[in-house]
Amino acid sequence: MKFEKLILSSIVSFIFFQMSFSQNQPKANQHRIIRKSFSQQWELDSIYKKGTFRLVSYKPIYITAGRWTSKTNKFPVSENPDYTSEERQDYNNFEAKFQLSFKSKVMQSIFWGCGDLWIAYTQKAHWQVYNKKLSRSFRELNYEPEIILNFPLNKPLFGGKLRTTSIAFNHQSNGKDLPLSRSWNRIVFSLGYEIGNWDVIFKPWIRLSDEEDENPLITKYIGNGELDLSYTYHNHEFNTIITHPFNSLKYGGMQLNYVFPIEGHLRGHVQAFHGYGETLVDYNHSQTSLGIGISFANW
């Protein structure tokens, strides 16, 4: 516990130091983080429409060179006995993590000129780069392709505006063999809301049935939806992603992100996570993790 408190206090101190340092720098030397609006991200208004088959960023792109976890999942289990590991996985508590994510519009102004069809791909990797014993192997790779039908909105609500809604087919898997294979398919609904420096995205989903269910109780642990909150303050971005089952207060997970400018378009990134489902193989495994790295795309 003393070690965990030391890491947490060090990161908190670093955050406050960085914010103070950045705000005291001359404005000419600051590179301002410009938050992309929903309209810019999804080309909702005619001024932002750029046609089809352009590859652009989707979810955040970042590299975390040092990630520490309070509880490594050395015996991944599933409610399906065929997908329960009986062999100890000798993983370290420290590893690297990175995420890549892109999307492309493939059809524009469909459904009476109102909607756009996008395809997207996100890959998240947990890499045991400091583990010589396991030949610095990848502990977990999560692949997430999506097909997204997105529609613009412009509805005033509580001082802000509902700006976008979508429906998506989402597949997520880790590409491993028995007994560590994990996957699921979802229909994901989304509603985006803007107010001041805040962006709010609410994403409930419906899990699709699977004959060979590798993770039968995944919605019990990860949840039935996601709430994504982002706030921009001067040159700093704060983001919270909460997943939660709608019928229980016991499970779910929360990820906290802080992004700050370093030089030019390069930004530092601090990430903390607590709960279930940081990766697919960890869907029913609770842990607390902390990491620091660099970020390349806006939250």
TrEMBL record:
User: In what way does this protein cross or attach to the membrane?
Assistant: Multi-pass membrane protein
Q: Name what cofactor the protein needs.
A: Ca(2+)
Highest taxon listed in the record's lineage: Bacteria
Catalyzes what? a 1,2-diacyl-sn-glycero-3-phosphocholine + H2O = a 2-acyl-sn-glycero-3-phosphocholine + a fatty acid + H(+); a 1,2-diacyl-sn-glycero-3-phosphocholine + H2O = a 1-acyl-sn-glycero-3-phosphocholine + a fatty acid + H(+)
What are the subcellular locations of this protein? Cell outer membrane
Q: Pfam families recorded for this chain?
A: PLA1
Q: Which GO terms describe its cellular component?
A: cell outer membrane
Q: Which UniProt keywords apply?
A: Calcium, Cell outer membrane, Hydrolase, Lipid degradation, Lipid metabolism, Membrane, Metal-binding, Signal, Transmembrane, Transmembrane beta strand
Residues that hold Ca(2+) according to the record: S135, S181
Query: What does the record's cofactor remark say about binding?
Result: Binds 1 Ca(2+) ion per monomer.
Q: Which GO terms describe its molecular function?
A: calcium ion binding; phospholipase A1 activity; phospholipase A2 activity
Q: Name one GO biological process term.
A: lipid catabolic process
Chief location category: membrane
Q: Which residues form the signal peptide?
A: none
The EC number on file is: 3.1.1.32, 3.1.1.4
Q: Where is the active site?
A: H171 (proton acceptor), S173 (nucleophile)
Key word Metal-binding present in the record?
yes
SUPFAM superfamilies in UniProt = Outer membrane phospholipase A (OMPLA)
**Similarity comment:** Belongs to the phospholipase A1 family.
Q: Quaternary arrangement and interactors, per the entry?
A: Homodimer; dimerization is reversible, and the dimeric form is the active one.
**Protein name, as recorded:** Phosphatidylcholine 1-acylhydrolase
